[in-house]
Design brief:
alpha/beta, 10 helices, Cobalt-precorrin-4 Transmethylase, domain 1, flat, Methyltransferase, Cobalt-precorrin-4 Transmethylase, Domain 2, 14 strands, 5-stranded mixed β-sheet
């Protein structure tokens, strides 16, 4: 029997931003092949007997090359297994999902594409920056920053992007950001054009820095930013001053250790997350039935001997 592969977009980081269909695919998976920028909380939905395979990639290092990932998907589906390829963001936005789909098609294997929320939009929204805004920006462009903008055969028309207005979003461009900003300015973009950097967009440790294309790199470096960073350039950046919300929550950026029993922890975890905290679950107690009441009965008989009675939340 032939299996099937679901190319699922996990969303930009916040585990709650995966689609309903994507979560359903995880719940029915026999094999999950997942990326580096996937929140581990999403993997809790996977059946306990499913195989989890990490194939994360970062600049300069990777667990598996893309051709090997393609072959892995082919091999698992050929074994008749239900496979989820869980990819950060959207599979078809610089996610190489098209290459994986082509490999499956070439081998006669069925697949489905489950789109995800791309960080190009979500990270900006969590930073309080709308990618479009009436009267400010009615167009946007998303480009990969992994290509050197100074090379003569660049496939990205930086000279056009420097002049066409709208919002420009650069993904995977932290390492090349100095060259990108210089190229935009040399091609006519004003050095006062607003810019923002969003690190770990939608994650609990998101950090946002704002400035203009002349000073934003220094501001980001001084703030200690490192990849992954999304760069947004355009007048919409100014709206962050009024629209920022994610990093304004009362417990934003705080790590909270939750030691409640596992059966009680989930509700508190949710409340902490809603307040902006990054909760760490470490149950130190377990609540269960009492099978032998001898010790408890003896203690109650001597209750008058005690000066204090403490009632725990359990």
């Amino acid at each position: 029997m032939t299996g099937k592969v679901y190319l699922v977009g996990a969303g930009p980081g916040d585990p709650g931003l995966i689609t309903v269909k994507g979560m359903q695919a995880l719940q029915e998976a026999q094999v999950v092949v997942y990326d580096r920028l996937v929140d581990p909380a999403q993997l809790k939905a996977v059946p306990q007997n499913a195989e989890l395979i990490f194939v994360g990639k970062a600049r300069g290092r990777q667990q598996l090359t893309q051709p090997k990932i393609n072959q892995l998907l082919v091999d698992k589906a050929s074994q008749g297994l239900n496979v989820v390829r869980l990819k950060g963001g959207d599979p078809f936005v610089f996610g190489r999902g098209g290459e994986e789909a082509l490999a499956l098609k070439a081998n006669g294997l069925p697949y489905e594409i489950v789109p995800g929320v791309t960080s190009a939009i979500a990270a900006l929204a969590y930073a309080g920056i709308p990618i479009t805004h009436r009267g400010v920006s009615t167009t946007f462009t998303v480009v990969s920053g992994s290509e050197d903008p100074s090379k003569p055969e660049s496939t990205i028309p930086w000279d056009v992007l420097a002049k066409n207005g709208g919002t420009l979003v650069v993904l995977m461009g932290w390492k090349s950001l100095e060259n990108i900003l210089d190229t935009l300015e040399k091609n006519g973009m004003s050095h006062t054009t607003p810019a923002a950097l969003v690190q770990w967009g939608t994650w609990s440790d998101q950090k946002t820095v704002t400035g203009n294309i002349k000073n934003i790199l220094k501001l980001g470096t001084d703030a200690g930013l490192t990849a992954p960073v999304i760069t947004v350039i355009g007048e919409v950046v100014k709206l962050r001053e009024d629209l920022s919300w994610f990093d304004k929550r009362p417990l934003f950026g705080k790590r909270v250790l939750n030691t409640r029993s596992r059966s009680q922890a989930s509700q508190l975890q949710t409340l902490l997350e809603q307040a902006g905290a990054n909760p760490l679950e470490l149950p130190t107690i377990e609540i269960g039935p009492l099978f032998d009441f001898t010790e408890l009965d003896a203690t109650l008989e001597r209750l008058a001997d005690y000066k204090w009675v403490i009632f725990a939340s359990a």
